[in-house]
């Protein structure tokens, strides 16, 4: 799946007395820890291995199909609705009804599976907390394993955290948000877990370990007889949804629970997937609880899909919002599709974070959030995302005021007017200018995000926004696109073209600015120089890498060859 030429190999000790007890064909290369061993039990690993063996060929085929689609787009083809599946789009069918425990999802909060974050998010007042193993998490071994421990304790209601610096103990309230878990995408490997000599699929490790340890307690404590609940990222085609549906069915069979117990919301965050929404829901119709507008990754995917189309250049990323026709069309069609099929249509992320030292700027930011959320609820969305607990009261107030008293708008906002959304609407090139400040912001945000990711943080506050891998990806691919086609920066009167020389100068100047902003000590101790090399290399590469995190992942893998044993 990915090369590991830069990973760190820890030399073996002369003698080992402990190790993970693993089934045949499974090898754990992550550091041994007795607490981690309570997650990496032999039975849990056997379950993960069974999923890997059953579905690895299907995953490989799906990834090969992605490559073929990329070649078509790079040769001038455009994504469109598949004529072969028109009967699915035209037929009248419904997904199973939403479970009562998650009928009301009007505000959802997201964040990494870090212990304090899990507690605060579950206590935040949101209806749902999406605990993230994907874009908001740097998937080093420690983060992954501690994340599973944290979720196990959260599902059982026993999680607590002692903040020694503040001398404060955090624990769960009586009433908490419902827990959804987002595993990694199909394309990401887990290099610390080898199955039959090959890295396991990261998503199957995330799903398998979480499901194995928590399905029973979750159904008892959170799901009211349903669950567990998931968010599914980065899909490009319904064949990928079919794999997930089969994974869910296999897991339900293992647990001895009824088909349709597991439920999942799919993030529509790639341009090809917007033409497959009916088909994705159809494949998951026994396990679906809707679709979500993953709008930041969607913008990233627009650039990636059209990387060989110089007539489809994006303006400054701050100008690519929901007011753009192609983004509004995507949202409208998602709402119409979901409500026609009887499931939730979830809105996008509010990435703002409170500005505590500037009340005027904070109120201006909240006004933008309210405006965006009013647009979503009036369009017919059943709920939305927030990146910070401080936004939840304002967003909840907006949805409460416009939802008409019901738990969702599935029956009341059918959006038949969106039936006419065509491929041309979904592909319309966004309008706006390109500026030197846009190039600088992309570079500054991208480098700082990669630096944080390399040191273990996947969710990073930058310039009053919570940045994750999706926004860093937009920065990277937009810089690459502008460099590839030598675009003119027409937004600030400079009229210069983006060249390798100009970009090199921007990188140097933005590194100096980052050092001033974070301070010399933090800059010298951080991984800013390493991040700069990775980010600049990807922006100037002759071929656009599919994902920033695939390249950067090599730098956070640490192998411990003697971590597992067969007892």
UniProtKB/TrEMBL annotation:
Catalytic residues, chain numbering: 182 (proton acceptor), 468 (proton donor)
Cited SUPFAM superfamilies: Malate synthase G
Family from the record: Belongs to the malate synthase family.
Positions of the Malate synthase TIM barrel domain: 178-429
One cellular component term from this protein's GO annotations in UniProt: glyoxysome
Pfam families (alphabetical): MS_C, MS_N, MS_TIM-barrel
Domain Malate synthase N-terminal: 24-86
Subcellular location, principal: other
GO annotation (BP), single: glyoxylate cycle
Gene3D superfamilies: Malate synthase, domain 3 (3.20.20.360), Malate synthase, domain III (1.20.1220.12)
Organism: Salvia divinorum (Maria pastora)
CDD domains named among the record's database cross-references: malate_synt_A
Pathway: Carbohydrate metabolism; glyoxylate cycle; (S)-malate from isocitrate: step 2/2
Taxonomic path: Eukaryota, Viridiplantae, Streptophyta, Embryophyta, Tracheophyta
Domain Malate synthase C-terminal: 435-556
InterPro entries linked: Malate_synth_C_sf, Malate_synth_sf, Malate_synthA, Malate_synthase_CS, Malate_synthase_TIM, MS_C, MS_N, MS_N_TIM-barrel_dom
Alphabetical UniProt keywords: Acyltransferase, Glyoxylate bypass, Glyoxysome, Peroxisome, Transferase, Tricarboxylic acid cycle
Reaction(s) catalysed by this chain's protein: glyoxylate + acetyl-CoA + H2O = (S)-malate + CoA + H(+)
Enzyme Commission no: 2.3.3.9
Subcellular location, record wording: Glyoxysome
Name assigned to this protein: Malate synthase
A molecular-function term among this protein's GO annotations: malate synthase activity
